[in-house]
């Protein structure tokens, strides 16, 4: 009798970290599996550790090798950490993509904003609908989140049903879109859920996430009370928050001016897909300066401190149309993503120095998370009754706490894994049965580099200790043609004793060349290596750092 097909799961991003989500499910045996990919997202570069890197993406080398067996890519929702890598990576996969209407429309708008985007077809599936993708039957179950049309995915297979939650929360009053479909999730629990692959972002927080409706009430009060101009910044994709801000502006008899391309794009897509029906028309930035101070509200991008986004330019007083003055107010209707604290803090400080009143979630309920807290996680477990729970979408602490909560809630099996682990879900006992290649790709300008790339490693070293450049011209007999040229970048001008580093390095180069036997001086590689070592040594002696040193030897 033939053995039944195994159902396996492997995260290639988004486990042990928040962002860069990519999960794959396989059905078959060790020699031949059909694969289904869920989400393909990015995380953002950190200038301190990855200077010049814009985006970080999951390594998809495994999927490239399995391309003929990759049945499709399904999107849970249209946040950048779930779909931001598609334009760069899809050409390597060329598989069908499935998404609901809003996600597909936002992706199309994102492609249109690119210079030369690849033509990427997306099959639109209705919210609550089902689609056969190879041997997988995928059901889109509505869940509340901070963007329209977020969906948990019930992946139905011969080996059992997996619930991949995506990003979700329980919000009975979500302002826009449908609440989390408790009825269908309970039905799934009765039918039998083999595994729950669940969002862990807020697993350390007790209680429940407040509702978007509560935030809307706070924003209405704050905008009504404001005396001068008001600016509100939030995640551009949060259409419910955009509607709440629009309602607050209308209640206070203010016009909404939309500032920032990402916000303009989402507003356009939300209007086209019906999510802003009945909401007043917004104005463009050119009219901002012509409206009375008490009649205007600027809705801005830049809640995460992005240097070229609208709010940073306003705070630095270099935005061409939008200005704020003493007595005006800025509402940060967002939370600061870990790693962005310095950038956001700098904007807040600049605004405060200008006499602007800054309101954040530290003092007012102006933001709520789109992710479930512990009581909501317990509800999901109670509704779906999974045989196995695997925490994902979180840093190690979040995964650990979600796992501990699941065990306490009576889930029979709980398994914590890492990116690259191949997990057997069923039939039979679940467990980690292997490993698949995983890692990171860095978007460096227009080029994708892997994490070991020379450019990434060297730039990090140069950011820490500068760089030394030396050019030497030698005769075929091993004599200097002229004085060496030395150029030091990012290195102090003088040491503690007041000696210039240019002179110290120059002397070290000349003395090294003169001290070498003639045979080594005639060998460009040997000469270059000796000079490189000498330059790094002398700079380290006087500065305590060893910068990269590039030596160019020209033989004439």
TrEMBL record:
In this chain the Metallo-beta-lactamase domain maps to 21-219
- Top-level taxon of the source organism: Bacteria
Keywords, comma-separated and alphabetical: Cytoplasm, Exonuclease, Hydrolase, Metal-binding, Nuclease, RNA-binding, Zinc
Q: Does the keyword Nuclease apply?
A: yes
User: Pfam families under this entry?
Assistant: Lactamase_B, RMMBL, RNase_J_b_CASP, RNase_J_C
Q: Does the keyword Nuclease apply?
A: yes
NCBIfam families given in the database record: MG423 (TIGR00649)
List the protein's name. Answer: RNase J family beta-CASP ribonuclease
């Amino acid at each position: 009798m033939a053995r039944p097909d195994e159902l396996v799961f492997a995260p290639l991003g988004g486990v042990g970290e928040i962002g860069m989500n990519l999960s794959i499910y396989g059905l078959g045996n060790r020699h031949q599996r059909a694969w289904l990919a869920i989400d393909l997202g990015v995380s953002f570069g950190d200038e301190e550790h990855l200077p010049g890197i814009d985006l970080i993406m999951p390594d998809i080398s495994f999927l490239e090798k399995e391309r003929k067996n990759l049945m499709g890519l399904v999107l849970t929702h249209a946040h950048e950490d779930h779909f931001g890598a598609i334009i760069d990576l899809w050409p390597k996969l060329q598989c069908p993509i499935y998404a609901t209407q809003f996600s597909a429309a936002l992706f199309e708008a994102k492609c249109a904003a690119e210079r030369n985007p690849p033509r990427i077809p997306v099959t639109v599936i209705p919210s609550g609908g089902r689609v056969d993708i190879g041997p997988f039957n995928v059901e889109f179950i509505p869940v509340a989140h901070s963007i329209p049309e977020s969906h948990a995915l019930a992946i139905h297979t011969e080996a059992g049903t997996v619930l991949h939650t995506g990003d979700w929360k329980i919000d009975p009053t979500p302002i826009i879109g449908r609440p989390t479909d408790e009825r269908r999730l309970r039905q799934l629990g009765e039918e039998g859920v083999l595994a729950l692959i669940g969002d862990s972002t807020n697993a350390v927080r007790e209680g429940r996430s407040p509702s978007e409706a509560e935030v809307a009430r706070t924003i209405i009060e704050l905008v009504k009370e404001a005396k001068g101009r008001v600016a509100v910044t939030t995640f551009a994709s949060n259409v419910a928050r955009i509607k709440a801000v629009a309602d607050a502006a209308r209640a206070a008899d203010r016009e909404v001016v939309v500032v920032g391309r990402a916000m303009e794009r989402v507003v356009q897509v939300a209007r086209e897909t019906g999510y802003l029906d009945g909401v007043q028309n917004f104005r463009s930035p050119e009219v901002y300066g012509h409206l009375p101070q008490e009649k205007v509200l600027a809705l801005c991008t830049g809640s995460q401190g992005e240097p070229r986004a609208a709010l940073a330019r306003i705070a630095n007083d270099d935005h061409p149309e939008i200005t704020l003055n003493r007595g005006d107010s800025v509402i940060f209707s967002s939370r600061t993503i870990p790693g962005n604290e310095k950038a956001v803090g700098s904007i807040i400080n600049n605004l405060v120095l200008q006499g602007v009143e800054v309101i954040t979630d530290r003092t007012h309920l102006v933001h709520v998370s789109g992710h479930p807290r512990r009581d909501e996680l317990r509800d999901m477990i109670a509704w779906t009754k999974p045989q196995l729970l695997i925490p994902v979408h979180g840093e190690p602490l979040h995964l650990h706490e979600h796992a501990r909560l699941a065990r306490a809630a009576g889930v029979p099996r709980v398994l914590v894994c890492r990116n690259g682990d191949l997990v057997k879900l069923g039939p039979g006992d679940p467990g980690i049965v292997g490993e698949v290649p995983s890692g990171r790709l860095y978007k460096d300008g227009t080029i994708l580099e892997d994490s070991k790339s020379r450019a990434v490693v060297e730039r990090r070293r140069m950011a820490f200790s500068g760089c030394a450049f030396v050019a030497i011209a030698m005769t075929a007999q091993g004599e200097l043609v002229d004085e060496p040229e030395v150029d030091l970048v990012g290195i102090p001008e003088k040491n503690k004793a007041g000696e210039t580093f240019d002179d110290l390095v120059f002397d070290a180069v000349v003395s090294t060349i003169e001290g070498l036997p003639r045979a080594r001086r005639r060998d460009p590689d040997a000469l270059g290596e000796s000079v490189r070592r000498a330059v790094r040594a002398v700079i380290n002696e006087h500065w305590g750092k060893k910068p990269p040193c590039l030596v160019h030897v020209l033989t004439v």
